[in-house]
Amino acid sequence: MRNQFITDAYIGIGSNLQNPFLQVASAIEQLSLIDETELHSFSSLYSSRPMGPPDQPPYVNSVAWLKTRLDANSLLLRLQAIENEHGRTRDGERWGPRTLDLDILVYGNFTLNSQALTIPHPGIKSREFVLYPLHEVNKNLMIPNLGAIHRIQPRCYANGLTRLSI
Ligand code: ROI
Q1: Nearest protein CA to atom 9 of ligand 1, as residue
Q2: DSSP line for 29-45
Q3: pLDDT over 60 at 145, yes or no
Q4: What's the farthest any 2 CA atoms get from each other in the chain?
Q5: 0.85 surpassed by pTM
Q6: Ligand 1, residues 23, 61, 126: which to mutate, most atoms within 8 A of Cβ?
Q7: Of all protein residues, whose CA lies closest to atom 13 belonging to ligand 1?
Q8: Cα separation of 112 and 165, whole Å?
Q9: What is the DSSP letter of 145?
Q10: Which of 11, 16, 131 to mutate to test the pocket of ligand 1 (most atoms within 8 A of CB)?
Q11: Using one digit for the tens of pLDDT, what is the confidence trace for 29-49?
């Protein structure tokens, strides 16, 4: 649904199958085409160690900063459509490899806890592949329930996270 207000939404992007670098680059382009939404900026692409079963390829991760008039659930539907276009399947093992994962990390000052969606994303504070690119795109970000990104990010171990592009 269209919203009178423009909200800053931060999207976590991850892939570790079928040319992850291209998957992430193409996802960023798709994000720029969402209706009622503007792609404000995006982070470098990073290579990260898999969280979850270790017998899977490394991930490529990034974070995009959107300005949107869509409500959170409508935005989620757009993200799921992009995941599907990228051949995402949902029948694999928990925390198994994936062609494309798009998560709403932060949606303005909102907090939400529904079956479909938890905002802010519950994994933010323990995931270096989210916190470092999020800090790169907005060093002044305040995350509801968690606080200032510039305080949280340095407390998170980098775990071999490597920047692939500037
Ligand atoms: N691990 C890394 N490094 N990056 C991800 O984007 C990622 N996404 C996931 C799980 C399976 C939890 N592991 C990940 O969904």
Answers
A1: 95
A2: HHHTT-TTEEEEEE---
A3: yes
A4: 46
A5: yes
A6: 61
A7: 51
A8: 33
A9: T
A10: 16
A11: 999 999 999 999 999 999 999
